[in-house]
Amino acid sequence: MPTFHDPLADADEASAALRGLAHTTRSFDDPAQTYRVLGDLLAGVRSLEQVLDQLATAHITHRGRAHDDSGDHLAGAHAALAAADELHRSRILLDQAEVRLNAAFSYSGRIAWHPEPARHEPATTTAVRRWISVVFLQGSEADEVLDLIDRDGTDAAIEQLKSYDYGDETTQAALENGHVYDEPPTGALDRAVIDEAGYALTYNTFAGYVSLLRQHNIAPQDALDESEVVSVQDAIGASQRPSAPDPTTPTAIPKASARREPDASWFEHPGVAAVQRSRGLSW
């Protein structure tokens, strides 16, 4: 004799089991248990898909017995077909949920949970901004640029001085010669302008000199220890920089191919010697 099962009783039992699962999974003392729970949920979703199909079939199969509350059979049959259609749509959505749940189950199975969290050293991921010298002009060469500033403005002066920038060669020469700064160096009477392209123009009409610097972003792994970096203001105060530049200062930064001994001037970036030694740039 076949065993009779009451769908309503089974549905109540399933609903109670899901409520209990929702309660017990509010937290996990052992995250390894999540893999087992995911597996059971995946099996449950697949069973639920079957239930939805069977519910839809029941609505279609017995639509001949369907009526609305007023006894209208056509209205009842229409509602039965509409319910079956919505159940099929739910089945389609559940298919998508099963795919995602199955992927989560697969990824979870690759995890080896350890008793204690891993410890990671904080990593520097942000590039460090520095300024490198492109060109320094004084005398008649500077006078021409100062006249250009008076006539056409600082943008025109920056555009003209950019012709001294040889890209990587200029950067390399600045690193070799210590012409690297945490901020564009300026004196008491200097004026400074920074454009959107990352160039800084500093000039002094009274002392008669002009300087162009370019922003240079240093990769995190190449950055100097910030505790060793001296600010421009500290460097100026320590050396008592004169109002006019040293006449021996070159009029332009040489290309990287023209090596010369680094200057030990006030603006030399602290720690550059260490960078030079580590990259084989000093001799």
Description:
This protein is α+β, with helices and mostly antiparallel strands and 283 residues long. 46% of the residues lie in helices and 12% in strands. The protein has eight helices and five strands, in the order αααβαααββββαα. Strands 2-1-5-4-3 form a five-stranded antiparallel beta sheet. A hairpin with a 4-residue loop joins strand 4 and strand 5 (209-218). Helix 2 (33-61) packs antiparallel against helix 3 (73-108) and helix 4 (140-152) packs across helix 5. The termini are far apart. Mean pLDDT is 78; it is low at 225-233 and 238-283.
Radius of gyration of CA atoms, rounded to a whole number: 38 Å
Q: How can the largest sheet be summarized?
A: 5 strands, antiparallel
Share of helix among residues?
40-55%
**Widest beta sheet: strand line-up:** 2-1-5-4-3
Instruction: State the order of secondary-structure elements, H for helix, E for strand.
Output: HHHEHHHEEEEHH
Poorly predicted runs of 5 or more residues:
225-233, 238-283
* Total helical segments: 8
Structural class: alpha+beta
Overall average pLDDT: 78
Distance between the termini: 99 Å
Number of strands: 5
Strand content: 5-15%
From the spread of the alpha carbons, the general shape counts as elongated
